[in-house]
Every structure is written in structure tokens, then in C-alpha cells.
Amino acid sequence: MTLDRGQCDGRTASMLALKEQLPAQGSPKVLFIEHNHVYGGTVYFLRDLISCARQHWGVVVWMPRAPFRGLFEMEGVRVLGAGHLNFEQSRLFRLVKRYPFRRGEATLRSIVQLLVYTLPMIPHFARLYRAERPAVVHVNDTVDMNRAELLAARLTGVPVAAHVTNIRRFTLLDRLALQVPRVFIASSEAIKASYVAGGAAPARILVVFDGVDMHRFRPSQDRAALRAELEVGTDHFCVVSVGRIIPWKGLDVLARAVAQLADEGTNVRWLVVGEGAGKPGLEALVHALGIADRVRFVGQVESPERYLAAADVLVQPSLRPEPLGRAVQEAMAVGCPVVASAHGGLVEIVHHGETGFLVPPGQPLAIAEAVAQLASDPGRRAEMARNARAHALAAFSLDAQVETTIRCYEQAFPELAYPPPAHPTGRVFHEHGA
Predict the structure, then answer these.
(1) Higher model confidence: residue 283 or residue 428?
(2) What CATH number has the domain spanning 15-211+397-416?
(3) What DSSP character marks residue 1?
(4) Distance from first CA to last CA of the chain, Å, rounded?
(5) Fewest CB atoms within 10 A around its CB: which of 92, 178, 318, 433?
(6) What angle do CA 191, 192, 198 make, to 5 degrees?
(7) Helices 251-263 and 364-376, packing angle to 10 deg
(8) CA angle (216 as vertex; 211, 217 as ends), nearest 5
(9) Short-list 301, 16, 147, CA closest to 162
(10) What span, in angstroms and rounded, lies between the C-alpha atoms of 208 and 344?
């Protein structure tokens, strides 16, 4: 089966064209399970994956929360899950979800979740699978969010694909659940390594970078006008950070780097895009360092691409390994060089000295030095900007992510052939070098 890359781009293909290319009646069905309740990259990827998948197979989506129903229903996709929403609203479930388990209590938390959620929900999903009769179940996000779904699939014999997007440590129960999926689609090598450490077979894990919409995230055609609109001066060197304001994101380290740059004479301005529990503390630190006039807290925005396109550099100073680094991908897509911590998925997408700089985590002087190099050399900064855009187009376009995932489905799941073979082989997609 040949895929038309344009057809698989959910943002550019017309809705009418997609609806006219529905699979034949009686073709195999894929049941997609989505737990996220905040708009983000995994939800948009799932939307575009479904836009493409439904051209070949039947599709149904199960989700426990309402926010995204319209995103899928507008494409004519059936969405299930209201009964589970009532369960999540129960007093006991809310109490367990909000209980402040301490560090080191992962095993206790896992046991409580097993008793309160996993065991009661296994029969629910078993009934769902028997009623819907999917050829394949696709779970989105982490294994610990899908324990009941995976164990019900084992009981009913339904094959599973798992799209995993976070670095995890696994409990004993998780390690059992890891044996269920026939194939994992991991967003980075760092994520794959954590799943291998948890007991998943390397040959069952395919690494596919999360995709970015290259039509939305692209260089500005009038950058000077954009900077003026965002109140960034022509003589300012604009640093931007995008993401949650929480301690492990390392924005306190970046604040100290900005103070160092200011002391050294760089006319630096820092746009802080995002919200989070750490915002009051970061605001206090900015005032204590005497850089409040150089920092603007933008808040959460619907269009981060405008701030990325206006900036001279994105800094991602994470103290813990990022699973991949979506803000970094989006910055590179608009042609913005990057300074990022040298661990986790960030080392897989930032080419040191070509698309940006990798620096040791937690070291403000290293960040300041890297940013100063870019500020003092406009020619090199422009070259890195071009390299970043070219690398983004080649390595993590949304089209490529969807197309690779569909190919993986075709190879790993003979059950999706139409008509299905009498004796599926369960052949698994093997990554090169696995």
C-alpha cells in the first residue's frame, strides 16, 4: 500500500477529501486510547495519525475526558468513554489521585492505584474490546497510564501498539504490562533506553521523533515587524524559553545566565513563555538579580511560534533529562538556534556547533558563554538558523512521523491486512541495528 504524504498531513488535506476516502465496510478496526486532558503534541499527532489511518482501516477513539471529542468527531470518528468519566469523578478516585505520595513511595502508590483503578477497570476494557472487536488497540502515552487497558488486551488476546513519550521508571506491575504490546513507538532513544531497562525487548521498540507541523512552525517572512509587534527592540538580543515554569525545567539557572550576560554588557531580553507553580519564585529571583527590566513573563500562549520566530535563541536549561524536547524542535523549525542541556532526548535533536549548543545541566556560566557566542557573531547565528530549519525539515516533520507510524502498523500487524490472513504471523518491525 502506498501512502500519499500530502494525504497524511491532517493540517493540509481537506476534510471532504478525507471523508471520501473511508475504508471499505468490514475492513479491520483500530481502537485508539487517549488519556491526555491538555492540548499538546501527542494529541495533535494522534489526530493526524487517525486522519491517515482511517483511509485504510476502521477507527474508533476511546477517551475518558471531554475536551478533545470535537477534535476527532469533526472528522466523523466515533468517540467513546463517558462511562469511565463518571468513574474518574468518584470520590475515592479523586482522593487517591490527589494524595501527596512522598518520594520513595512509588510501590505504595502503585498498589493503591492497582486496587482503586487498574483492577476495577480491567473488566470495563475487556467488555469494550469484545464489543468493538478491534484488530489492534493503540495506547497513547505512558504504560502506567494504560495498565488496565494493556492487561485487558492480554486477557482478550487483542494485539497492542504503544506510543510512548516519556522516560519512566517501572514498578513490578508496569514490567508485567510492558510484555503486552507487540510494538512500541518511542519518541526518542532516551525513552527507548528507559523501556529496555524496564524489561521491554529492544527489537519491539521503534524510535520515531515526534513531528512538528512545518506549515505552522516556519521562519517569519517579516521578522522585523514581528519583533516590533512583540515589543522586542532591534538592538535587543532576544532569548526565549517555552514550557512549564517548574523547578526541574531549570529556569532559575537561565535567570542567573541572563544576569551574567547583562553584567558582561549584552543587551539581552528574555521572554518567558509558559505558566507553572514555580512562577512566583522565578519572578522573585528575577527581581533579586536586578534583571526585572530585561525579563517579560508572557504567560501561556496559543501561538508560541510567533515568539520563537522573533527570538535570537531558545534556551532549554532542563535539570532532568527531557524525553525529547518539543519546544526545541519547534524552535529549530522556525529557524531559531538552540542552547540546551546536554542530556536526555535533547542530545538527539541538537547538533552541537551546527544547530545550537549543548551545555552541562545546571551551569549558568556555560549557558551565558554559549548565548554570548551567538550574540557576538551574527553570521554564525544566521548559519545555525538555516541549519536548524533544514534539520527540522529532514528529521521531524509531522508528515514523516505519521507515515513511519503507518508503515510500522502495516509490518507489525498482519491483522490489519484486508481481508485478514487466516494465521497472522505477528511479524514485528525491527529497527536498524536493533
Answers:
(1) 283
(2) 3.40.50.2000
(3) -
(4) 25
(5) 433
(6) 95
(7) 50
(8) 70
(9) 147
(10) 15
Domain boundaries, the chain: 15-211+397-416, 223-395
At 26, is the pLDDT very low, low, confident or very high (cuts 50, 70, 90)?
low
Contact at 8 Å (CB) between 143 and 167? no
One fold for 15-211+397-416 and 223-395:
yes
- As a whole number of angstroms, the longest Cα–Cα distance in the chain is 72
Q: What is the pLDDT of residues 382-395, one digit of tens each?
A: 999 999 999 999 99
Among 113-122, 153-162, 420-429, name the most confident range: 153-162
Q: Above pLDDT 70, what percent of the chain?
A: 82
* Residue labelled with grid coordinates 504503544: 162
Query: 3-state DSSP helix/strand/coil percent for the chain, to nearest 5?
Result: 45, 15, 40
The fold of the 223-395 domain, in CATH, is: Rossmann fold (3.40.50)
DSSP-assigned beta bridge partners for residue 164: 186
Give the tens place of pLDDT for each residue, 179-230: 999 999 999 999 999 999 999 999 999 999 999 989 999 999 999 999 999 9
Q: Where are the beta strands (DSSP E) in 285-372?
A: 295-299, 313-316, 338-341, 356-359
What is the percent of the chain with per-residue pLDDT over 90, rounded to a whole number? 59
3-state class (DSSP) for residue 255? helix
Cell numbers for 176: 508485567
Burial state string for 164-191 with b = 16 or more CB within 10 A and e = fewer than 16 = bbbbbebbebbebbbebbbbbbbbbbbb
143 and 168 in contact (C-beta within 8 Å)?
A: yes
* All three cell numbers of 379: 553570521
Phi, psi of 185 (to 5 degrees): -115, 105
Local confidence band at 4 (pLDDT 50, 70, 90 cut-offs):
very low
d(CA 290, CA 333): 33
pLDDT (0 to 100) of residue 96: 59
Omega into 419 within 30° of 0, i.e. cis?
Answer: yes
DSSP string, 173-218: HHHHHTTS-SEEEESSHHHHHHHHHTT--GGGEEE-PPPB-TTTS-
Strands 237-242 and 205-207: unpaired
CA–CA dist 209, 188 (Å, integer): 6
